[in-house]
Amino acid sequence: MKRNYRVLLIVGILSAGLWSFIPSQKTSGDEKDKMLIELLSFVLEKGHFSPIQLNDDFSKKAYASYIQSLDPTKRYFIESDINEFQKYENSIDDMIRSKDLSFFDLTYKRLMLRMKESKEIYSEILSKPLNLNDEETINVDYEKLPFATSKADLVARWRKQLEFAVLSDITDKEEIQDAIVKNADKTISQVVDVKENKEAVKSAPKTFEQLEEKARKNTESNLNNNFSFIGELTREDWFSIYLNAIVTQYDPHTYYFSPEDKEKFDVSMSGKFEGIGARLQKKNEGIEVSELISGGPAWRGKLLEQGDIIIKVGQGNEEPIDISGMRLDDVIKKIKGPKGTLVKLTVKKVDGTIKVVPIFRDEVETEETFAKSTVVNKDGKLYGVIYLPKFYQSFENKSQRDAFKDVAQEIERLKELNVQGIVMDLRDNGGGSLETVVKMTGLFIDKGPVVQVKPANGKAQVLPDTDAKVQWDGPLVVMINNYSASASEIFAAAIQDYKRGIVVGSKQSYGKGTVQNVFELNEFVRGNQYGDLGALKTTTQKFYRINGGSTQLEGVKSDIVMPDRFSFMETGEKDEKSALPWDKIEPADYTPLNVNFDKVIANSKHRIAANENFNLISENAKWINNRKEDNTISLNYTSYKKELADIEAQTKKFKDIEKFKNNLTFTSLPYELELMAKDELLKEKRDRWHSELIKDVYMTETLNVLTDLSGKDANTTSMKGQKAKKTKEKKLASK
Fold it and tell me: For the PDZ domain, which residue ranges apply (predicted)?
């Protein structure tokens, strides 16, 4: 793909303009914060696709977004706090210009105070039995709920919230007891921890008073863990929240990354990092190993285990450091490190013994990020399914694996098995690299335009596939849903516009038609004494289909619509308050294939209309939509149980949706079967995926569509046949 000189020009202009941003030798937290405000304002003004005017209207929106971020459930601030804050409601624009931090300082200090008070409130309420017999209700539509009028009102609000949590816990445990008593077929472990189930089976059913006491302890423990996590957030973390309340007013995808967030973003995009390959979580007793990443150094070493508690971390032969009381992010930083270096973890094993576990760091691949494929035999024909969770690419090292290379490799492996058609499953794929999706689309089409990209007040640039080679020219179906976004929409739109395949799934995709670039803020400042300033991801362009239409807000509309639970719900970009508008430009010069999918589409629509599962899903979607305004819940134990029973009765017929199973068998490819023989975790993950596909009514119908596409009666011809026809026509014309 050609380099985006428009973006390079923006970077050049910004860099030149920021030479005046030379920090003083003496720095403080406030000075760094002021620097960030000035820097972000400048970058957004010069680099954003659609800069907005900083005025009172902007201030009101940023103010509302910030307060919502600080207290979304309205359980901290009271009315007097909000009255005090509101004098700044129209002044955020002025404070940005003057780098005034008084509003942030006020809200930050007040929030810390209110959170401390809230912990005292819930601890006091949960210290004694709750009255669950009063005829009270709670409204859980927090957005429409006003702030508490006083501290007494806030205490009453906390009490209701805690009663709701305790009621929910009690009824869950009663459900378990009933299942045990009735020897029900349901799997009890679906509800609570397996160990607790075993104890419950051995003991007699608990009384209501015992269940209530246990539920209060559980609720308090959960809240303590939550407050412990929040307590680890630094002033810098909260300032990032303030900054993002400001920058997201430009559009939903403009976002400030603190240094830690930028690192996580890079890992999510590349699917790789250097470390030991273990996921950690903070528990009451310390930092616990929650999972070992298959293939990582910790997994290969076989000394570190899930459930181990990390006590100390040592670098190489240095004296280990006690990490008790340390923030989880700080512990992770100490454990991560360059490939080939040694880290020694002192851990408390599940059996209570203390051991030192040496691990040489290595490159770790977060396997769940990458493309994977499977084959299925249907009606005597073999088909391939490629699932792609995102269009990943390493920005730092383009020689590493990316979605384009991996999908190309999976196609070759499927071709070796002589599959008759391929499904590209892009459900829940939120997008990723623009360069990658352009190249990946080229795997399925002859050379030609893939997408158009347009900067603000500039001419649209066509991004083409320049390689005439077609990796797969057979039947193709693309699966999307409400959460297929950005690069997924580029791919699906191009396949649809070229009539290269059929797009199936939700009524439309997410509707994100914008391009973001990540600007490293450190690069714009000379003589930086502040340390890492993080990065700004901001919208610099919009992209358009080759037919000229934008996917912004409207998304990609499926050729075959399959009912889903969100059919009647408002989801997607169009629900974002700061979303950019839809528009249209001139189409690119492209030639769609001469195919007619009408019969295949009509067959599918007929099957869907007659399918009991799809009819149930559609009915369930209507039921969910009708209930979305029902936000009032009883806090009376008897009434609450009745409400649950009523809902259970209403939804009983919808449970048949979960019972669906097709009669298909999904099998991993030969190379992966060899890996699975040595890797139990990989085998478990693939078995789980295949089990989900067996219960996936959407995949079942998609394979029906693919069968129709590959059938003799399909009114389509292969790309290979059409290319041969075009070549013959050109030769005849030249004569």
Answer: 266-336
CATH architecture of the region 272-365: Roll (2.30)
Separation CA 489–CA 721 (nearest Å): 27
**341 in Cβ contact with 382 (< 8 Å):** no
Instruction: Count the Cβ atoms, other than its own, within 10 Å of residue 433.
Output: 22
Please state which CATH class domain 367-660+695-710 belongs to. alpha beta
Nearest-angstrom CA–CA distance, 386 and 204 = 50
List, for residues 541-568, the tens digit of each pLDDT value: 999 999 999 999 999 999 999 999 877 7
Strand intervals (E) in 277-387 = 278-283, 286-292, 309-315, 321-322, 342-348, 354-360, 362-365, 372-378, 381-387
Three-class secondary structure of residue 572 per DSSP: coil
Q: Could you read off the pLDDT of 171-198 as tens digits, one per residue?
A: 888 887 877 766 544 444 443 444 445 4
Q: What's the rounded Cα separation, in Å, for the pair 618 and 566?
A: 9
CA distances from 575 to 251, 483, 487, 581, 595 (A): 12, 13, 19, 12, 36
pTM summary value: 0.82
Contacts of 242 (CB under 8 A, 6+ apart): 66, 104, 107
Q: If DSSP codes are grouped into helix, strand and coil, which group holds residue 174?
A: helix
486 is catalytic: yes
Q: Which of 32, 74, 282, 512 is catalytic?
A: 512
Distance, CA of 521 to CA of 245 (rounded, Å) = 18
The neighbouring-strand residues paired with 314 are 344
Given a cut of 50, is residue 22 above it in pLDDT?
Answer: no
Mind spelling out the 3-state secondary structure of 450-467?
EEEEEECCCCCEEEEECC
Spot the catalytic one: 362, 446, 465, 497. Answer: 497
Pick the catalytic residue from 59, 486, 567, 668.
Answer: 486
Q: Domain limits of the chain?
A: 53-249, 272-365, 367-660+695-710
The bridge status of strand 632-634 relative to strand 137-139 is antiparallel
Return d(Cα 386, Cα 425) in angstroms, integer: 6
User: Are 474 and 535 spatial neighbours (Cβ–Cβ below 8 Å)?
Assistant: no
